[in-house]
Amino acid sequence: MSRKALGKGLAAIIPERTQETLAAEARPVAIAEIRANPFQPRHQVEEDLSSLVASIREKGVLQPVVVRRRRDGYELVMGERRLRAAKQAGLETVPAVVRSVEDGEMLELALVENVQRADLNPIDEALAYKRLADEFGLTHEQIAGRVGKDRSTVSNAVRLLGLPFKCRDALAARQLSPGHARALLGLANRREQVELCERIVAEGLSVRAVERLCGERKPRPPAKTTEKDVFVREVEDGLRRYLGTKVDISEPGRKPGRITVEYFSAEDLTRLDRLIRRP
Hints:
By secondary structure, the protein is of the alpha/beta class. The protein contains 14 helices and seven strands. It has helices spanning 10-13, 19-25, 50-59, 80-88, 103-115, 122-136, 140-147, 151-159, 165-172, 178-184, 190-203, 207-217, 230-243, 266-277, and strands at residues 27-30, 34-35, 65-70, 73-78, 93-98, 247-250, 258-261. It has a five-stranded mixed β-sheet, with helices on both faces. It has a two-stranded antiparallel sheet with strand order 6-7. The relative contact order is 0.10. Mean pLDDT is 82; it is low at 1-13.
């Protein structure tokens, strides 16, 4: 499948304007004619909209939603909460600004809108990042720039998708925290991950307790008998800073020395490959 390029995000379709200017550009659109955003990253809707519904009943929809035109009506770009609340409030129309938006921008804008509100559960957030990487060829660093997060935050989120589905479901239902999930990733055995996940849910274990249990189950690395050469440590630290990931250099002896570079996903490997091959 050919890669699709993303646009400039929200600023590309809605330049910075005052709410008054944007509201003046909006026009009433029948709610029945607006379909949901097919690229919406949220799979579970948990939010209580009662206060927003009450506000809309009293004052109306103050900020317009953004839609794109389709042959048989419109498709929502941004403003899912306002649209759902307007429906619950019994409105038949909602103020809307019509924009021409590509599919890639639809996903990007829906992701940014939700992530910046901390509205996604950790699994939906991770799946959205993965979709941006897989379908549009973005690196974790590029994704991080678009959603206003650190690259490590994006990479760590995507790592959560490596958990068994039972653990992922518990994380999506917020029965586990991301801290619990990251601790579970330290176990190599998926059966042990599921068993410990069940204990966390049943017993309400803290993240620190789970980290301790995971440490007890992990095989202990062999103790190092000699300290690394100062030059080797300096090279190791330099590579770690440049590549943005853990690097380990073993010194040559009876066997050749090795340089080990950690990565957490196919996208992270692509990022490292680009850095290493950079002229």
